[in-house]
Design brief:
Helices cover 65% and strands 2% of the residues. It is globular. It has a two-stranded antiparallel sheet with strand order 1-2. A two-stranded antiparallel sheet has the order 3-4. The protein is mostly helical. Helix 7 packs across helix 17 and helix 9 runs antiparallel to helix 16. The protein has one domain. Strand 3 and strand 4 form a beta hairpin. The longest helix has 35 residues. It starts with a helix and ends in a 17-residue tail after the last helix.
Length: 507
Amino acid sequence: MKPLIVILVLASLTFIIAKPYVLRFTAEADFARRRNVWFLLTITAFLSPNFWIFVLVAAPMYVWAGRKDSNPVAFYLMLLHVIPPLSVDIPTIGINQLFPLNNYRLLSLCVLIPTAIRVRRTAAASSKHRPWMTDALLLAYGAVNVMLYVPPDLPNHLILPNSWTNLLRRAVLFLIDVYVLYFAVSRSCADRRKLIDAMATFCVSSVLMAVIGVFETAKHWLLYFGLERWNPHDDLLRFAYLFHGSMLRAQGPTGHALALGFLLAIAFGFWLYLRENLPRSPIRMAIPIILWMGLLATYSRGDWLGGLLILFVYAALGRTPLRGVLKLVAAGALGIFIAGLTHFGATALQSIPLIGHAQDSDLLYRQRLLDRSWTLIKAHPLFGDQLALTQLTDLRQGQGIIDVVNSYIEVALFNGLVGLALFVGFLLSGVVPLYRRMKSAWPRDPDEASLGLSLLACALAAMLMIADISLMLGVEKMLYVLIAFATAYTRLGSTSSKPAPPAGKWT
């Protein structure tokens, strides 16, 4: 009960303070419903002795709230990390395994699939604006990923064989986990109101996670760790208590410090746009500070670089680039000076190469991984080596895993250069049209251009950050959401006769 009480107190304060500002982008009924469902499911999770009792409450709640909400994608982002993504196998009769269920898949089944079905007719009616290239590249990448079976990294060098049943299972899970997410978000948010509402809702959720993360690091206490009772054998628990020196790395309800850092960096990029439509106030200045405090509490250097890249891109490509860059340099110098005056900030600064003097064992591991992986990629260039992990056993860490901490290397290792080309092509097919639309919008609609600049900065930073993170947990989900947002942005106005009014000026 103690962690539940702490979470409820922190969440109550966050929602109370954030409400007046969020309502400038979100309907009051939608905000109240999302908040209430978040509270209900959080309480249910901590009081449920097993995962299936939580499902009995969450599934009908997701279906009902998803249908009532004017923007189901925003509802999805609000509840994406209401609990950690612990997985539990679905009970079956007559077969060994159906597939594991977690909160991500539960949301996809109850919210995203119904949303995708509802928007399919609208998407078909505007087929000339459909992003055919992005859709095709994602489906082609999914086909390669499904056909090339990579056995799980099990102890004792046990290699599970593939089967037609497993092939079908993998295809279904790709549709549920990836394509439905991309399709529902890209089609449902092709309206400025809904797109901005989704961004604002994600910022609220992220601020709450940042507050929880700072508390976890300060108290050396992971508030969601008690939910391990649902599945003590889940792989997620191997990464629970991660330390940087004597400091606990925060993770909140995301399941990993790297995932939390990634999400908070993206939320910071969204906030750079949202703040332009809010009046000056202490809260407007406090939000980025809270997000960066949470980001620092993860001790994830790749995510820190992602957040800095977002800030640099937003300043360098804005309406006054020179002034923006100069302000950025001054703010960065001031931030480093202030951080150095605190124990928390000084410890974080010691983690940064060229500034601190912390051990760079992580960098050495990444260099070894790159060298060994490149040798294997050259040996199997087209479609990779699905048994590559058996040749990387010397890279197994103390946690008992071979940590492929680079998404591009991971794709190239197991899916070859063909899979990597499809994956990178999918990312670029969303980012390049976004940049073009953003550039053309500056003369006619500066607010739309600022919105596009925020999404562009976040997408570029995400492409940088996944070079230091594997495609896992919320990192994978938010990456596909970002490309879907980019695709939706390029389609703004294609489904209606006139664009929505600027954010912050709605009545």
